[in-house]
Design goal:
Chain lengths: 203, 203
Amino acid sequence: MGSKQRREREKEALRQEILDAARELFVNEGYENVSMRRIAEKIEYSPTTIYLYFDDKLSLLYAICEETFARLAKRMESIARDSKDPVEALKLGCRAYVDFGLKNPNHYKVTFINHPQHPRDDKRHAKEESMGMRAYGNLRAAVEACIKAKKFRETNVEAVTQMIWAGGHGITSLLITMPGFPWVKKSELIDLMIDTLVDGLMA
Amino acid sequence: MGSKQRREREKEALRQEILDAARELFVNEGYENVSMRRIAEKIEYSPTTIYLYFDDKLSLLYAICEETFARLAKRMESIARDSKDPVEALKLGCRAYVDFGLKNPNHYKVTFINHPQHPRDDKRHAKEESMGMRAYGNLRAAVEACIKAKKFRETNVEAVTQMIWAGGHGITSLLITMPGFPWVKKSELIDLMIDTLVDGLMA
DNA sequence: CAGTATGCTTAACACTGTTAAGTAAGAGGA
DNA sequence: TCCTCTTACTTAACAGTGTTAAGCATACTG
């Protein structure tokens, strides 16, 4: 009886179909501008069908964010591998992070800016953010490499990592959420931030 | 006929009452968790009465944000006045900004993080953000003073101002939106950011 | 072939922001 | 004082939201 396996395959396929539809809508129009009914319409099922595959709208979002995080983490890892100089690697990693955010603004919004948290959110949180933690770990490793190579002066690795993250996030999020503001050239702003932070950390 | 004036005074009083109720609810529970009906209930009027005083929910929010901005701008200005050293003034200003955000997280969320923009948003935007621009102007002036005093090396004032803002905003927004993350001590993180940026900018 | 489990849908609930229409009270003029 | 008209507010409703409970076929199992 391969029928059971086939049905399970079909179930998984529909799950993916829902995910794909939701991702496209979320990314193009933003999380809160997309209704469950619209997602359902897109996949040509009834709205309630989605609830057979996902707990709620937020879970749908979390699942998509995980994918996104995975892509980001992968990119950061390949940068770390390909670079020789640890400082250069860190800089490239930061740029990659910001660029990633600017290229996927709605994704970024949803994962880092709005970051809607479930009411009564326990193990769910930790699990969904595993990929995010992996990306954070990459950044931390890059910082640690700079310190080990004596390029940075000895300091609290955790704090420095978080500060650099905050620097990148600050630029990314402001550029995304306030597009009407008279910003200077984006790349100038990004480079200035990264260079200034790194300069300030130099031994 | 003083009756006309009296009625106008009463109208203004109700407007303030609405604003006060909305502010308290927004600040305590967050913008999107508060419904017009709840605000109405609090002031003991029907929900539609609010629409006689404000265009919509977002306008209510904007009005409140203006007040908040004004407070922030005032604080920053007094810091600028009281400090002698321009670099110290800049540092204190940044700290004041971050502290302000952390002390009023829901206000900060609503003004800087979510920053909901009206669809078909023209002069409204510019006007509502006048106070924000004033605060930005203060920061810019502080940066300019550092450059004029030859403490910072000559650079693009606009870019440096925006970078510093992004640095402060990055920390503030991350601390607010991801309270579950294993952050290092807040004050350590804030000081590290400010000191590192300023060090990186020093002549 | 009967019975049951599976996968999906229809209908509904309790909300949301917002608008149109209606009502009651007070002001202004004769 | 009486009538009219404006002002301030309310009630009812619309169109939408996320989500759940109940029902209905289809397909699998004994």
